[in-house]
Amino acid sequence: MSLFGSSGLGLPRLKPLSSKRSHVVSVLDIGSSKVVCMIARLTPREESEILPNRTHSIEIIGLGHQRSRGVKSGVISDLDAVESVVRLAVDAAERMAGLTVDSLIVNISAGRLTSDVYTASIDLGGQEVVASDLRKVLVAASQQSLRHDRAVLHSLPTGFSLDGEQGIRDPLSMYGDLLGVDMHVVTAERAALKNIELCVNRAHLSVEGLVATPYASGLAALVDDEVELGCAAIDMGGGTTTISVFAEGKLVHTDAIGIGGHHVTTDLARGLSTRIEDAERLKVVHGSAIASAADERDLISVPPIGEDDRDQPTQVPRALVTRIVRARLEETLELIRDRIQKSGFSPIVGKRVVLTGGASQLTGLPETARRILARNVRIGRPMGVSGLPTAAKGPAFSTAVGLLIYPQVADMETHAGQGGLLSALGGGSGRIARMGQWLKESF
Q1: Phi-psi region of 189 (alpha: psi -120 to 50; beta: other; left: phi over 0)
Q2: DSSP code of 19?
Q3: Which of 47, 70, 319, 406 could bridge 295 with an S-S bond, Cβ 3.0-4.6 Å?
Q4: Which ranges carry the SHS2 domain (predicted)?
């Protein structure tokens, strides 16, 4: 299935999950440091106080992950390399699950992710709001975002207004003259999406849906109170750091910067004159964002770059490693702080920040983030998932788990002229009733 078919409207849309039956969902997280394929069984669950917005419980039945090749700062730089890594990861997950996969939900960090809010309103003439009015106002807002060079990844209604009164959660059946909606739209460059799809197609697989990385990692790592009260999830990956802001149960803003954990590694490789893989090991074993009193005394052995066996490792104080690591992490966190400030969502984020992604595991990072962001910081791990091996329970696997959660919230989205909420509105009275239910739950 092509992303950019004859309709010209863009991306494939996920079919909504049935709340009555189990589904097998396959996802692919293509990152700068690793490529992860997860296959999970989603089983309908009873409503509960723990993660109340989840309609299904998730059990991992297949997992494959490979060191990434051919991806730089979230952007594909070598199609062949990415294709072979995708094949290996999917193959390992298929063998573990005992089934074959033909389509996957895939994440996207590249393509200069952009977050915009569009507002639209329609005249009701003093009449009652019916489903067709909702459809009309949602389409009007969505269509403002259509551009030939960018594709819409997510479009989420964040709130309705009636005759200028903001903050209406469910306008259905209310009376008024003017119905308005605010629509949060996340877009990416079409070329970046085409390249992702091309890689997946070359591995004889198809893309079932595309999800922005910040949205996925936020879905996996945030608890419901954080999503409701306002919180930022910061996913620190190998090549990119992404930001998502949630409030009142919805994604309200996303952003991405092209700096990640790999930049810390290359800084170490340059500063200590050692190979990239040796710098990575030094970062993981000795890297810290906080200096300690013993750092000047503790000596670390740094392998030389040359091939000559007679070259002796050099000894450097641990303090040098800490200085290099800390400088890059502080720069990254300051950039994030400035981006949140500039976005205008700083008051919504309030005092809550959750760090996810592989680079968030560096020693001392939460303390440094607390100081620079001036907010409460915790490390977010994927929640509400069974069957994950211990090695995959850390923050590095948040995006992949978020992709598994995404189908449960995908029907909250609106897409101009296709799928999602709009087609649900077009059906019979049962669907309209479900629409009313959805509005009640979502707004």
Answers
A1: beta
A2: S
A3: 319
A4: 25-221
User: For residue 240, how far is the Cα from the chain centroid?
Assistant: 11
Cα torsion through 21, 438, 153, 14, rounded to 10: 20
Tell me the pLDDT of the chain averaged across its residues. 86
Percent of the chain with pLDDT over 90: 56
pLDDT at 432: 42
Interatomic CA distance for residues 239 and 369, integer angstroms: 19
DSSP track, 23-86: EEEEEEEE-SSEEEEEEEEEEE----SSSTT--EEEEEEEEEEEE--SEETTEES-HHHHHHHH
**At residue 28, what is the residue type?**
L
Terminal CA-CA length for the chain: 33
Task: Mention every residue, 6+ apart, whose C-beta is less than 8 A from residue 133.
Answer: 122, 124, 179
pLDDT band at 112 (very low <50, low <70, confident <90, very high): confident
Is residue 101 within 8 A of residue 205, CB to CB? The reply is yes
Please report, as a single letter, which amino acid is at residue 432. Answer: I
CA dihedral 297, 300, 305, 311 (to 10 degrees): 80
